[in-house]
Automatic annotation (TrEMBL):
Highest taxon of the lineage: Bacteria
Similarity-based family: Belongs to the short-chain dehydrogenases/reductases (SDR) family.
Pfam family, one: adh_short
Domain Ketoreductase residues, every copy: 6-195
GO MF: oxidoreductase activity
Name this polypeptide is given: SDR family oxidoreductase
Gene3D superfamilies: NAD(P)-binding Rossmann-like Domain (3.40.50.720)
Source organism of the structure: Algicella marina
Amino acid sequence: MQLDGTSAMVTGGASGLGEATARMLAASGARVGVIDVDADRAQMVAEEIGGVAVAADVASEGDMTTALQGIVSAHGAPRIVVSCAGIGTAARVVGRDGPMPLDSFERVIRVNLVGTFNVMRLAAAAMQELDPMADGERGAFVHTASVAAFEGQIGQVAYSASKGGIVAMTLPAAREFARLGIRVNVVAPGIFLTPLLHTLPEDAQKALAANIPFPGRLGDPSEFADTVRFCVENRYLNGETIRLDGASRLQPK
């Protein structure tokens, strides 16, 4: 799918991987909707890239219905939807203070997994009404998982479960949407230099990078964005999960 002139939507687009993706899409000519719970930051990014900003909780049906309506009004129904919104809560199943609070587990699942599904179901309903393009394609979804979906560390039970769910729903969604000409793919990044990791001391960053075979450094958000672009532009890529991790594998802890 070509990016130039195409309506796109990025959740979690106000920072980190989502911001890098929103900027890449806009630089390629796409009309970008930036969705994030941080309204001020989303507005700043949108203004800088010539897009529109909408404050929304991806796990809220009402928020996302309104957000999608706003993007449709501004740019038309999005053909490109990238889900980067997510959170992580580190906690053992049974820690020093007892079992992990159930609401902590549920919150991570709700934002990461339910939120991704919520965005997909609402956007796909709008996308199916669009006229088909080359090869009968109407649109493309790119979800964000994590290498933690495959070798989660101690303390990552909730996060790994949420990202594993995103990976698991990709193929059935791609199969269902095939008749509509809508593709679904996932990028599973390793350790990337996002704003959160920028706050760590340089020694801590180097320690994280030491376990990455090659290149021996943390990932750059622009490399994630480049992978999203590949997923969108390559019409034969469908139902796949791409690991983006420098050949690293997470250790138990």
